[in-house]
């Protein structure tokens, strides 16, 4: 049922993206200049700016399909306030950790030329490349694992969430090129779609296991973005524990930071 739901969402998004067209300026007045410098923001639906050179009236509702706020960055696990994992969580020690996500739909209200708020939705992945040769137990609650005698060349633990952030975005006045500085802050929530462990070894080749792995079924936190034009940087802090119903993993949180495109 869950896989069917995910497939339906992805199919809908792909159809929307294929039908999108690039935003192009129509006139040479100040409103069309705004459109020329929107940067990477393919959108299908009502925009929060006018792309036909008309006078913009506020407040202005906007919404529809989009493909923007593409985040790619690094992750760090925080164990009871420390970046060093405790003895109970050493099996989750990692060599690399990353975060990737993007928005596919949005609806909001632009109050003035310099301020808007909106709710969006999209997908987000967190990746942990584990150092240890451990196999997470798909049937255990709380979270459990087994030490393996196999030497894994790759051991990646991934969580996939449907994200729903609420954003308050401020922007400066346009410079002579039509670009603006932007600051966005807000709260984010997420619903767990799946957890995955991918293994690769000479002995067994590629293996993939799916389960919720006691990952938090509902995540929440705060985020901030700072940028100029269509590029920026982001930081997110997840206030909830990464795992639920797992006493040894209490106060284990995730912090991510990196670059964002389509801001």
Can you give a write-up of this model?
The protein is mostly beta strands and 263 residues long. It has one domain (58-261). The chain has two helices and twelve strands. The strands form two sheets. Strands 2-3-4-7-8-10-11-12 form an eight-stranded antiparallel β-barrel. A two-stranded antiparallel ribbon has the order 5-6.
Secondary-structure topology with pairs:
Elements: H1 2-18, H2 30-36, E1 43-46, E2 60-79, E3 94-112, E4 115-130, E5 134-136, E6 145-147, E7 152-171, E8 181-201, E9 205-211, E10 218-228, E11 231-238, E12 252-261
Antiparallel strand pairs: 1-2, 2-3, 2-12, 3-4, 4-7, 5-6, 7-8, 8-9, 8-10, 10-11, 11-12
Briefly say what this structure is:
Residues 86-239 form the Outer membrane protein beta-barrel domain. This protein has helices at residues 2-18, 30-36, and strands at 43-46, 60-79, 94-112, 115-130, 134-136, 145-147, 152-171, 181-201, 205-211, 218-228, 231-238, 252-261. By secondary structure, it is mainly β.
Write a concise keyword list for the protein shown above.
263 residues; mainly beta; 8-stranded antiparallel β-barrel; two-stranded antiparallel sheet; 2 helices; 12 strands; disordered N terminus; Outer membrane beta-barrel protein; Beta-barrel_OMP_2; signal
